[in-house]
Amino acid sequence: MEINNICCIGAGYVGGPTMAVIAQKCPEIKVTVVDINEKRIADWNDEDVENIPIYEPGLSEIVAEARDRNLFFSTDVDAAIDKADMIFISVNTPTKTYGIGKGMAADLKYIELCARQIARVSTSDKIVVEKSTLPVRTAEALKNILDNTGNGVNYQILSNPEFLAEGTAVADLMNPDRVLIGGDIETDNGQEAVQALVDVYAHWVPKDQILTTNVWSSELSKLTANAFLAQRVSSINAMSELCEKTGADVNEVAKAVGMDSRIGSKFLQSSVGFGGSCFQKDILNLVYIAKSFGLEEVADYWEQVIIMNDHQKRRFAANIVKTLYNTVSGKKIAILGWAFKKDTNDTRESAAIYVVDYLLNEQAEVVVYDPKVKPEQIYADLDYLNTRSEKENRDRVTVLNTPYEACEEAHAVAVLTEWDEFKDYNWSKIYDDMLKPAFLFDGRRLLDGKKKKEMGFEYYAIGS
Ligand SMILES: NC(=O)c1ccc[n+]([C@@H]2O[C@H](COP(=O)([O-])OP(=O)(O)OC[C@H]3O[C@@H](n4cnc5c(N)ncnc54)[C@H](O)[C@@H]3O)[C@@H](O)[C@H]2O)c1
Q1: What is the distance in A from the centroid of ligand 1 to the CA of 460?
Q2: Would residue 349 be called left, alpha or beta, if left means φ above 0 and alpha means ψ between -120 and 50 degrees?
Q3: 74: Cβ below 6 Å to ligand 1?
Q4: Residue identifier of the C-alpha nearest atom 11 of ligand 1
Q5: CB within 8 Å of 368: residues ≥ 6 apart
Q6: Nearest residue CA, atom 23 of ligand 1?
Q7: Which CATH number fits domain 5-205: 3.40.50.720, 3.10.450.50, 3.40.50.300, 3.90.79.10?
Q8: What angle do CA 229, 424, 258 make, to 5 degrees?
Q9: Where is the UDP-glucose/GDP-mannose dehydrogenase C-terminal domain (predicted)?
Q10: At a CB cut-off of 8 Å and minimum separation 6, what does 61 contact?
Q11: Considering only CA atoms, which residue is closest to atom 27 of ligand 1?
Q12: Is pTM beyond 0.90 here?
């Protein structure tokens, strides 16, 4: 089966970059990315490619090359569905905020809406690909809706979870460790659909890196991968607290441990805690699934990863208060970095949000600088917590355009995102312009602590 026309529903952090790379690598396939968010689509179509809504190194160049050649962004969802042979569903699957499973289960309402729309609109056979991260056995529900409400056309459902990491999305998509495709491999039609998607990726991914499995293994593998990654962060963060009490240094421990080839060196960087839209939501979803099968010990085991992560954020903020003579009331605290990691403008679940919320509860005056995050996003993130009024958030938090302004006359500076540029600032100027003692809290272990102490800073890093 040859694929000529792809539609992707959802022009977000996954749909946008993934489809841009498919379009670049498969110039004979027409790729249309659709979204109900008109502003987002208008931004993807902005004449100046630097204004596309998602910042990822290398992405704007790819969009410049493929856009209006075989890559299109549109709000006409119906038309794109109808014309497509293959439809990727790449919509958001946040944690439920209501009803059964509130605070744990994935909210699948956006997925179901997509399925119903596909069923309503389609007049020819389709391969529907789950790109969103979904609970195991969601494909069954999708198939049920499509088969029972559709126009009598045939559907094949594939699971093709995305393993890209924000900040390195383009490199990850160009050179994936593996591509995973789950399908109904017991049947000829299922195998044919799997092969059609394999052929798309085979334009640039070596065949031995394209794994095919049954749908359920594929769905569960994505949750498992995120759970394992997050678990490593919580494991090293648990050790960071012990290091602080014992005089060990968490970087030295991580290096010694990571050189064991059975353990490996990646993802052992201690920090103020992981953020991002995925780790927490996917682990909570895993916990919910385990609980719904009565697997209490499995659920408790994974939940501990989240408990540790929340603890790390809280204890970082609490340490700032304690170190500043047990009060930050009325004190100016400069925050460097709001994105959940470097090289992205995504702030979802960023540790910065929670650290600042804690400091505001302690009546600090907060000033924020981030190279890529816009002020309205920072305020929206704080408003979303509902801890205080929108007016109060705006009165007590100032967002500035330069780091030097942000740190001027500050009692303390806290580094919360590992942006490379932070390392190269003129730190002696920052020191001179701060109130003394000049406290510097490094939540990413990004800076050279020894040099900062020599400059006169009271320097504190997680894990030493
Ligand atoms: N962000 C990541 O790094 C990452 C990595 C791997 C997997 N995932 C998974 O991919 C999925 C998407 O994540 P994201 O970060 O791209 O989310 P996102 O919020 O950035 O994008 C989702 C988009 O879908 C659109 N949408 C929702 N319902 C729609 C509908 N009915 N019709 C058309 N558009 C609709 C929204 O307007 C939004 O623009 C999630 O399931 C996530 O868990 C994310």
Answers
A1: 37
A2: left
A3: no
A4: 132
A5: 334, 335, 338, 352, 356, 378, 397, 398, 399, 400, 406
A6: 10
A7: 3.40.50.720
A8: 30
A9: 334-449
A10: 49
A11: 91
A12: yes
Give pLDDT < 50 ranges for the chain: none
How many residues are given for the chain?
464
Distance 91 CA to ligand 1 centre (A): 3
pLDDT tens-digit readout, 6-17: 999 999 999 999
Pick the closest to residue 6 from 280, 291, 203, 268 (CA basis): 203
- Cα–Cα distance between 459 and 457 in angstroms, integer? 5
Q: How many CB atoms lie within 10 A of CB 225?
A: 17
Task: Ligand 1, residue 161: give the atom nearest the CA.
Answer: 7
Beta bridge partners of 212: 181
Distance CA 267, CA 232 (A): 6
Do 5-205 and 220-464 show the same overall fold? yes
Report how far apart, in Å, the C-alpha atoms of 395 and of each of 360, 375, 392, 399 are: 11, 13, 5, 11
pLDDT of residue 151: 87
* Chain centre to alpha carbon of residue 440: 27
Lookup: tokens for 126: 């389709």
Q: Which residue shows structure tokens 């406290």?
A: 439
Q: Which residues pair with 369 in a beta bridge?
A: 336
CA dist 442 and 448 (Å) reads 10
Q: Is 451 a catalytic residue?
A: no
> Residue ranges per domain, the chain?
5-205, 220-464
Phi, psi of 210, rounded to the nearest 5 degrees: -105, 110
Tell me how far the alpha carbon of residue 403 lies from the centroid of ligand 1, in angstroms.
32
CA of 392 to the centre of ligand 1 (A): 31
Q: In degrees, to the nearest 5, what angle opens at C-alpha 100 toward C-alphas 97 and 101?
A: 65
Cα of 94 vs centre of ligand 1, distance in Å, is 9
| Active-site residue (options: 30, 114, 131, 162) | 162
Q: Is 162 a catalytic residue?
A: yes
- Tokens 């090289």 locate to 343
The yes/no answer on whether domain 220-464 falls in CATH 3.30.429.10 is no
pLDDT of residue 324: 98
pLDDT, position 1: 85
222 noted as active-site residue: yes
Cα 270 from Cα 250, distance rounded (Å): 7
CB distance 36 to ligand 1 below 6 Å: yes
Q: Is 9 in the pocket of ligand 1 (CB under 6 A)?
A: yes
Is any atom of ligand 1 closer than 6 Å to the C-beta of 40? yes
